Every structure is written in C-alpha cells, then in structure tokens.
Amino acid sequence: MSNGAGTLRVQRISWSRRAIDNLVTTSALGASILVIVPLVAIFGYLLMKGIGSINWAFITQTPKPVGEPGGGMGNAIVGSAIILGLASLVGIPLGIGSGIYLAEFGRNKFGNLVRFTCDVLNGVPSIVVGIAVYGLVVITQKHFSALAGGVALGIMMIPTIARSTEEMLLMVPRTIREAAWGLGVPQWRTTLAVTLKTASAGVITGTMLAFARAAGETAPLLFTAFGNQFWNLNVNQPTAALPLQVFVYAISPFDEWHRQAWAGALVLIILIVVAVTAVRVVTSRGMYRAS
Amino acid sequence: MGVGINVRDLKAWFGASEALHGINMAVGANGVTAIIGPSGCGKSTFVRCLNRMHETIPGATMKGEVTVGDVSILEQSAVDVRRRIGMVFQKPNPFPTMSIYDNVAAGLRLNGVRNRSKMDEIVERSLRQSALWEEVKDTLKKKSGASLSGGQQQRLCIARALAVEPEVLLMDEPASALDPISTGKIEELIDELKKDYTIVIVTHNMQQAARVAGYTGFFLMGNLIEFDKTEKIFTNPSDKRTEDYITGRFG
Amino acid sequence: MPEAPRATVISQSSKRVVPARSAFASRFADGGFRLVIGLSAVSVLAIVVLIGWQLIAHSDLSLKQFGLKFFFSSNWDPVAGDFGALPFVFGTLVSSILALVIAVPLSVAAAVFITEMCPGWLRTPLSFLMELLAAIPSVIYGLWAIFILAPLLRKFVEPFLGKYFGWTGLFTGPAYGIGMLAAGIILAIMIVPIVSSITREVMTAVPQQQREAVLALGATRWEMIRTGVLRNARTGIIGGVILGLGRALGETMAVTMVIGNRPEIAKSLFAPGYTMASVIANEFSEATDNLYLSAIIEIGLALFIVTLIVNIIAQALVWASTRGMPARAQA
Q: Are A225 and A239 in contact (CB under 8 A)?
C-alpha cells in the first residue's frame, strides 16, 4: 500500500562495476609489490655477494695489479671521505645560507626566482655538472684533483640542503621568532640563535641526506677527481672514490674485481641506508614539542 | 621602576588599510591599564605598536608620537625599544630547545650578558617575581621550557620578559589560552607586579579587566572610544557605545 | 585549596643589566647578515649561469664546425674528425620513453594503492621502502643490472619476447641481455620513486570533500578515485611524469653499464645502443683532440638545455598542483 511519499528504489550496484573495482584494487596491490621487488632483489644480492668480501684487508689496502687476488678499496674509502669533506665545505654553507634566505627573507619575486632555480639546478644531470667543473677547475689547474671533485659534489648538494633547510625553518612557528624580537634580540641573532637552533635537528638530517646522496654520485667525478689506484691525501691530485672504483671494477673483465665491486657497493649502501633511516626517524617524530 | 606612556595621534596600517585612526592616550606609571573591545577593534594592533612589534608584519607601518618614559620610540631603533618594553603573548611561547634556566636567561644571553653569577641571580629573581621559582628550582637546567604545563609556561614567559628589566610590560591576552586556575594565578601575579611595572594588558574578558586594572580603554573599529578609571567604565560609562559593549549588546 | 604561590618583588637597581646598543650597530649587523645570506642565494643563480657558460664556451669549436646538422648525422667517427650525434639522441629518447612506458603505469598504480587503498599500518613502511629505492646510487643499480638483470634478460625474458612478439620488429636479433631493453628496464626502476612520490603528493593534496562528493553519488572506490582524485590531480601527475622523464634523460652510470655503448640506430630493443650521457661518460677522458672534446661537450650542452626545458615544464605543472614542493619528495 502506498504511503503517498513515493518509494525509494534501491538499485543493486551492477556486477561489472564491482568486478572492475576489485580488478583495479588487485592491480594496484600487484603494482606496489612489483615495484618493491627490485628493491628487495638489489639489497638481497648486495648482501649476498658483498658481505663475504668485506674484511679488514678490503678496508685498508689499495687495489692490487690486475690478475693478482686480494687488495682492497681502502684508498677509495679515504678518497671519498676527502672529496665529500671538500664538498661539504662548499655545499653546506651555501645550501644553509640559501635556505635561510628563502625562509626568512624570500617571500618575494627574487626569492621565488631563487627557489625555482634551486629546483632547476636539482634536475641538471650530474654529468653535466661534471663537465662544467672540468672547465672551471680542472682546466685552470691543468690536472684532475679531489678539489675539483669536491666542488662538483658540493654544487649538487646545494639545492637539496637549501630546500630542506627552508622547509624546516618554515616549520618553526612565527610566535617563537616574535618571542625573541619581543626581548629586543636583533633579526640576525634571532634567525641564527633561535629559529635555526629550533629547527636544527631537521636541518642536520636534511644535510645528512644530501651528503649521503653525494656519496653515491659517480658521474661528476669521472673527469674531476678522476680516480687513483694508490693512496692520496693531496687535494690537488687525482683521488680515488668509492663509487668510481665500483664502476671501474664492475665494467672490467676480471672476476676478482667484480667480487670487490659488490663489496664496495655494500659499504656504500650501508652508509646511505643509515642516513635515510635517520632522516625518517627524526622528522617523523617531530624535532621539538610545539608549545 | 615603571614609567608612563604617552600616545599622541597614533595611526597604524596593514599595507594600505588603516587599522588605527589616531589614538590618544596617557598611561600612568606603575599600574595596570586594560584594553578591551570586540574582535578586530585594533586592541592587539595598538599594544603591538607600543613596542614596535607591529612593524615586523610584512607591509605594516605606524606613525605618530609614542613616548615611553622620556624616550620617543619612533626615534630609537626598534631593537632597543623592545629591550626596554617586555611582551607576553597570547599563547605561551617558551623556546622549545632550551631548558627553563636558558629560557629565562635567553634575553640576557642574546643581548650579550656573559657574567654567570649575575645571570644566576637574575634568573632566580625573575622566577620568584613570576611565582614559578618554588615549582621549578630543582629542575632548572634539566627540564625543557616546553615540558611545563600551560599555566607554568606562561609564567615562564613572564619571567623571561622580566629578566631583561623592562620598564613596561605588555600583555596580549595572556590568560586566554589557560584554564581558570592558571588564569587566577596569572591575575594574582599581575596584581603584585603592578607595584613596580607599568602594565598594559589586552583582554577580551571584561571581568578580568575589572579584576586587575586601575584604568581601562575601550577600543572600537580602530578608535579609542573611552579611556577612564576602570570603575567608571564599568559602572557609569560616558559613551553609549561603551555602555552597549559592556552590557553585552554586541561583541 | 592550597594557597596560591606568592610572587616576591625584589627592589631593582637603577642600572640596567642589559646594555643599550646603538641603533647604528644593530642595523649594521642586520644589514651585514642579510648581505651574506643574500649572497648565498645569489650563488645558486650564479652556478646555473656558470654551468651554461662553460658548456657553451667549450663546445664552441664543434658548434662552429657542424652547426645544427650535428644532431641529424649518424656518423660518429673520431678518427676522421666527423661527428654526428643522432645515434645518441635516438638512444636517449628510446631508453627514456621505454622507461616511462614501463614505469608510469606501475608508479601511478602503486601511488593509488598507497594513498587510497592501503591499510594505515602498511603506509609508512611502504613509503619508507620507496624512499630507499630513491636513495640507491646509480652505480649500484648499474652493478646489479650487469650481473643480475642482464643475464636474466638474456636467458629467459628476451628469448620469450623474441619467440612470441618478434613479429613486431621490436624483439629481433641475438639476445645479449645487454642492450636497449636492459637500459629501459633499469631506468624504469630508477624513476618509479620520483613519479610515485609526486603522484602521491598531488593526490593527497586533493581535498577530502572531492572524494566525499563522488562517494555520495553512489560510486565504487575505483570510480571515486578516478573522478574524484585522479582527475583533479591530473596536472600534477603529468608534471611528475615529466620530472621522471627529465631524470631518465640525464641518467648516466646505470645506463652506461648496460646499454652496450654502440653508436647505432636499430629498431630492435635487443640491440645495443648509446645515450648522450653515456657517450660523455665513456669518451670524455679519451677525447684526443680539441674538436673531439668539443663535440662531446656540445652533446653535454644539448643535454643541459633539454633537461632544463623538461624540468621547467615539470616544475611548473607540479607547482600549480601543490603550490611549491619540499625537496625531499624529489628524490
């Protein structure tokens, strides 16, 4: 019997629509798994093939002549440390400085230009940066050097450090800055001793991330630091670097060198995973308790 | 010792829009003056002009004559003005990465004071003045400023402001983010402090103004409508708009 | 009720403890600070300009000698001093497009899963794993590709493709393992994190009301995602794809290690090839005369300009969708 208000006709959702929905869900899940597979495979093989070859000799010795077993990548590890140290001298001050500019003074057209350029510089292929530094430093000095390698890697660190410093500084609430201004603290001191200090945990981990990425870069070092089979502590000489050595060994025809390439790669990836995990932990916990 | 404040024809803008239309006010030394009014009337803007915090907002400007004691604030550097005028904000904002001690000493350190024993002395004095000393004296350097309760944090901010020995203390709705018990403590504090400081307090709570302030100014739409003894404002206001506001007809 | 704490006021000395500083001194320090900070910001601009200048200056010889036909000639002959970059352009384009074809559907699907379908507890570990993928250095991808991926292709995948899909002309010729297909696959793996993270970011930026509006009309979850989220995030996703393209175009080490390094243009994906970045990596140090070096640097200049344009377009699209991007999302 009709109640006068009309009846609500409920349509059952069609079979095909539901089937499509299920199909899509399954495909999306499948895609996610497929995407993770290479990650697992890479880490798995690195561990499998590399772990056996990491020993004291590997870390402390230089490469042996072709054909002879043994030897290590000690010089490459030290060389990487030197080059990255130089890179940090270039990349960290300029990166943090730019980040401070973008966060504290950069809400204008010039700031937008700098921000945009930072993102553009981030996308420049690393080998192109290598060419430019070859022209600027290597040709001037007339030889390859750790210094040139450091400059190239430092340039690559700048955009990452700048943007993450900006992000961290912007997360400090304005009221903290106001508290400092209210006490009569001048702008420059407020920015350094209060704002930057509050954001310091995030800024440090952003810097670590840039450092870890620079540590794995090979292309810009090909014609700046160039590589070296021996120990070298002189920044004005060609210097070995871990990723470079892995590359050279990997494309060589010698099994012995292949074995060591896996070991070198494992050392490199451990460093990087530690940095990425640290970043995650610090930034997800929140660097400070907001009041 | 507190000093008097003289405001003559103070105007303030946010970009092109005028927010204060020529304020005239004379605040006596040592005592509490409350600034009341509905939301958006300019009371916060007014108080922030007194220590030139208004200018920190991009595009904000101010003009007029403001004399604190014997000093015209627009002729001094803003930084120096702010060293002599303390400010307590609506939401407590202790420095999160610093201990309680470091928070109170922040104003001193950041202004170049190095003498350790002097600092200890001032920190203790300031914490006593803000009635927080007994509660934190054992954990001064161990606990961070942000680990205290809301009411304690605000008293910490008051201690921090007092440590640099200001002549005037500006408070922008200092208790509005706190529970009633903490609010009561803050009001007791203000009552003690008024003997030695000139305090200007912005409040949207009329009962609070009645409780703590000797004088009250009523703001409406960027103008100072009436400024008189608190008792008079609340019992027998001269302006009809004041009367409408305090009897709850608007705002 | 306990007695409220009493405030005590100690009489103050007339001399203030905080010294007054002159207006000049504080303005001087502030000005100096702004200058130093401003200079760091300017240095970023200066660096990009310097890079461009160096590339143009050092490719001068080759630019003058060959002009624009440099990019249309396939003859790369260092001995005779004749240089044509077409094989490299071809190789770069094919490997990058192949990478996109493989990576984009997978990345978007994975992003959809993580953002809209994933149970809460799984979201963090999954996105952490993606971040790890993004952090693996190129040379390690290359190492894995030479010793694990290429043999896999040679023994199983390429024979299979050749047998059933050889008629397309894409899967003909001997199965070396090393070649264009390997390069495309490893590139795809490398750009999945970027495309996926940007897709996730722009999808998350779509307001919840949009999703609810579609659901309220009686849509299934996929229909809601399709019309309520993906449609709104379309611009940003395209931006992410183009950003991935930019990354693929410039990728050097992993590609160099598995593409075969032969300057040939072939239809089959099994054939070895050469990309612009790879030829620079391999032959830069061996360039014996100035013209040779200049030709290689000209390829670098072209790469610079192309990636610049691609990245500018991509950034513009992504900015339009999210109003500025944190650095971390662009692994």
A: yes
Spatial distance between the Cα atoms of A51 and A191, rounded to a whole number of angstroms: 46
Structural domain contains residue C236: yes
State which residues form the domain around B63.
Answer: 5-246
* Overall residue count recorded for chain B in this entry: 251
Identity of the residue in B83, B129, B188 whose CB atom sits nearest the CB atom of C18: B83
Answer whether residue B148 is part of any domain: yes
Residue of C nearest to A134 (CA): C54
Half-sphere exposure of C113 (CA within 13 A, CB side): 26
Looking up tokens 């696959």 gives C185
Return d(Cα C6, Cα B213) in angstroms, integer: 19
For chain A (291 residues), the mean pLDDT of every run of 10, in chain order, is: 53 79 90 92 91 81 77 87 94 96 90 91 94 92 92 96 94 93 90 92 89 92 89 88 93 90 92 84 58 31
Distance (Å) from the C-alpha of residue C12 to the closest C-alpha of chain B? 7
**Residue C176: what pLDDT?**
87
Beta bridge partners of B201: B34, B171
Contacts of A175 in chain B (CB under 8 A): 89, 91, 93
CB B80 within 8 A of CB B27: no
CB B199 within 8 A of CB B31: yes
Give the C-alpha distances (Å, rounded to integers) separating C309 from A10, B104, B153, C147, C277: 53, 53, 52, 35, 17
SS3 content of chain A, % helix, strand, coil (to 5): 75, 0, 25
CA distance B27 to B229: 11
Degrees, nearest 5: CA angle B140-B143-B144:
110
The domain in which residue C199 lies consists of 60-329
Q: Give me B190's structure tokens.
A: 């203000």
In a domain, C31, yes or no: no
Calpha distance B135→A101 (Å, rounded)? 41
The CATH superfamily holding the domain A78-241 is MetI-like (1.10.3720.10)
What is the CATH classification number for the domain harbouring B128?
Answer: 3.40.50.300
Mutate to test the interface with C, among B3, B79, B154, B162 (most CBs of C within 10 A): B79
Contact C256, C278 (CB under 8 A): yes
pLDDT digits (tens, 9 = 90+) for C38-81: 999 999 999 999 999 999 999 888 888 888 888 888 888 888 88
Task: Specify if B251 maps to a domain.
Answer: no
Residue segments in chain C with a per-residue pLDDT below the cut of 50: 1-14, 324-331
Domain total for chain B? 1
Domain boundaries, chain A: 78-241
Question: Per-residue b/e over C237-249, b at no fewer than 16 CB within 10 Å?
Answer: bbbbbbbbbbbbb
Length of chain A: 291
CB-based contact A185 B111, cutoff 8 Å: yes
**Closest Cα to residue C92, out of C191, C24, C183, C153?**
C183
Which of A272, A265, A283, A291 has the alpha carbon at shortest distance from A45? Answer: A265
- Whole-number percent of chain B with pLDDT over 70: 99
Instruction: At C322, list the tokens.
Output: 């999210």
| Coil vs helix vs strand at C275 | coil
In a domain, B56, yes or no: yes
Q: Are C250 and A128 in contact (CB under 8 A)?
A: yes
* Range A103-107, long-range pairs (CB < 8 A, 24+ positions): A103/A165, A103/A166, A103/A169, A103/A170, A104/A169, A104/A191, A104/A195, A104/C37, A105/C34, A105/C37, A105/C38, A106/A166, A106/C41, A107/B58
Amino acid in position A286: G
Do C17 and B122 lie within an 8 Å CB cutoff?
Answer: yes
8 A C-beta contact, residue A146 and residue A86? yes
**Contact criterion met (CB < 8 Å) for C4 and B108:** no
